[in-house]
Specification:
The complex is a heterodimer of chains A (159) and B (415). Chain A has 159 residues and is α+β, with helices and mostly antiparallel strands. Helices cover 23% and strands 20% of the residues of chain A. Chain B has three domains: 2-110 and 239-306, FAD/NAD(P)-binding domain (3-Layer(bba) Sandwich), CATH 3.50.50; 123-236, FAD/NAD(P)-binding domain (3-Layer(bba) Sandwich), CATH 3.50.50.60; 326-411, FAD/NAD-linked reductase, C-terminal dimerisation domain (Enolase-like, domain 1, 2-Layer Sandwich). The chains are: A alpha+beta (159), B alpha/beta (415).
């Protein structure tokens, strides 16, 4: 059973442990600006919303890459950027309708969530259970994926 | 079933792979008009120019055995004509290839500038790997390059030219850089950025003639001014590579006219990618959106139908991302806005940041950004899904930088 990140924004306190864990996992430093998961702060509503890649089935980023730099990890289902191959053209960053693959000027490459090879640091770091790593069928990502379907060509089912 | 694909770019290769997935027994041949080691991505050429990758880094697929493993025959040769009655393609070298289903995915070709001297040695365009090699071979620190054109290609190669020490002059006929993907203010900011980085930008002028002058070139402008040059780069846009189809009976306007299934007017013949003129999902008009994501999606749809399925393309969306000497700009959909539609433009010239959002009634229809790299994909998401914005329209008009919050609030209520 593949697992995926489950996000329950109601449990998020905005502590940014996930962003720090992501930054540390990938870059060895605690710099939240480098994080691939982001907490959005709706100040007026007092709401914090963690947000990162859902590893959508459509794989817009992977499909758009002109040089085959984004691959599917068959074990985790993650779409993973191979930095050595990425030329930094950024086409994936405008193709992804979720805005979850982004260009990093310092490296000249793009970055996105890769599920940390099946042990996501953000989920481990989250102290309130707002981010958990659970069986894919069980998550609330269905709604997000339904939205992905709207962006899609509504023809995949008939293919 | 014999599938023949003309063109080994992103569209042609994507279609071939999709066809193999759908039909393990089919014969699949891709006609590759360039004699390179492997099918490659033109998108990667700017990074070859700037020495960030080697030639193999431009290849569409990593595995050298990829095509053999999938039993996709990459046939070297250029198509000269399509004979739809006999169901075959005639090649320039005299060979003839039969087909049951034909996909035309020949992409774009560079437009040719009609000025005297355009065939002189030292005059280049920048479209193919061979072009890039020729430019790299003649480019040294201090080499005087006169470049005609500052569209997408003209802008994205500047980094490569400058990184090799070119003394670069860019001529812009309209006076506006990337005028086909950027509003005037954004064009100005990109031009200022280039000038600040040492590029000589000359607007409202163009080349009248190019002459040999000893070992150099002499470029005379329409204004009468004369520029000495070692290299003349002609990058004045591209057009669909469809000349070989004249007289074939395949319906063409700007490009090859296709329906939602990527079918041409002739049975068994399909088109995808930069040559295909299809419905734009924002404007509803038949047009060419010559960009990578559309090319691969159209190819996927074409292949599904060629293999006997029934899949419709919902329409293309104009989206572009450009890196001009490190300044990243994007445009989405109807970035120009529409008559009577609301819009907002945020200009921060000192920091080279710009954001324009354009609205229909209650939806985002277009956007332009400079200096934004985080989460820009949601602009595509909001436009393509016509997400009702509700209260967020007014909020975005007041502060367009909150587009990510608007997206989360309107599209990700589950979050």
């Amino acid at each position: 059973m593949q697992k995926s990140l489950h996000i329950d924004a109601n449990k998020c306190t905005g502590c940014l442990q996930c962003e720090m864990a992501c930054s540390y996992e990938n870059y060895g430093v605690f710099i939240t600006a480098k994080s691939r998961i982001k907490i959005f702060d709706f100040e007026n509503e007092g709401r914090k919303v963690p947000y990162t890649c859902t590893q959508c089935a459509e794989a817009w980023c992977l499909m758009a890459c002109p040089v085959d730099a984004i691959r599917l990890d068959a074990v985790t289902g993650a779409k993973v950027v191979n930095e050595a191959t990425c030329v930094g053209c950024k086409v994936c960053t405008i193709a992804c309708p979720f805005g979850t693959i982004n260009y990093v000027a310092a490296t000249g490459k793009v970055q996105k969530c890769d599920l940390c090879d099946g042990d996501p640091a953000c989920a481990t770091a989250c102290p309130t259970g707002a981010i958990t790593y659970v069986d894919a069928d069980w998550t609330g990502f269905d709604k997000m994926r339904a939205w992905a379907g709207k962006t899609d060509n509504a023809t995949r089912a008939s293919a | 079933m014999k599938h023949l694909i003309i063109g080994a770019g992103a569209a042609g290769i994507t279609a071939a792979e999709q066809l193999r997935k759908l039909d393990p027994a089919a014969s699949i041949t891709v006609l590759d008009g360039e004699g390179e080691a492997a099918p490659y991505a033109r998108m990667a050429i700017p990074y070859l120019l700037s020495n960030q990758i080697v030639e193999a880094g431009t290849h569409l697929r990593r595995d050298p055995d990829h095509y053999r493993t999938l039993r996709i025959d990459i046939e070297k040769g250029r198509a000269a004509a399509v004979d739809p009655v006999a169901s075959l393609v005639r090649l320039v070298d005299g060979r003839v290839l039969p087909y049951d289903r034909l996909l035309i995915a020949t992409g774009s070709v560079p437009s040719r500038e009609k000025v005297a001297g355009i065939d002189l040695p030292g005059v280049h365009t920048c479209w193919t790997l061979a072009d890039a090699r020729a430019i790299i071979a003649s480019l040294r620190p201090g080499t005087r390059v006169v470049q005609m054109g500052a569209g997408f290609v003209g802008c994205i190669i500047i980094q490569g030219l400058m990184s090799r020490g070119a003394d670069l002059t860019v001529l812009i006929r309209s006076g506006r850089m990337v005028s086909r993907m950027m509003p005037p203010k954004a064009s100005d900011m990109i031009a200022q950025w280039c000038a600040a980085k040492g590029v000589h930008v000359m607007g409202k002028t163009q080349t009248a003639k190019i002459e040999q002058d000893g070992n150099s070139l002499k470029v005379t402008l329409t204004t009468g001014e004369i520029l000495p040059a070692d290299i003349y780069l002609s990058v004045v846009g591209v057009k669909p590579g469809i000349d070989f189809l004249a007289g074939s009976g395949i319906a063409m306007q700007d490009g090859i006219v296709v329906d939602a299934r990527m079918r041409t007017n002739l049975p068994g013949i399909y088109a995808a990618g930069d040559v295909a003129e299809s419905c734009d999902c924002v404007t509803g008009k038949s047009q060419i959106n010559a960009i990578q994501p559309n090319a691969v999606e159209q190819a996927r749809i074409a292949a599904l139908n060629m293999a006997g399925g029934a899949a419709d393309f919902v329409g293309s969306l104009a989206i572009n991302v450009l890196d001009t000497l490190g300044l990243v700009s994007c445009s989405f959909g109807q970035w120009q806005g529409v008559e009577g539609g609301a819009g907002v433009e945020l200009v921060d010239e000192a920091n080279y940041r710009y954001l324009s959002l354009q609205f229909g009634d209650d939806v985002l229809i277009g956007a332009t950004s400079i200096g934004w790299t985080d989460h820009v994909g949601v602009l595509r998401g909001l436009i393509q899904t016509s997400t009702p914005l509700g209260v967020w329209k007014e909020r975005l008009l007041a502060d367009p930088t909150t587009f990510m919050a608007a997206y989360l609030a309107t599209s990700q209520k589950a979050a």
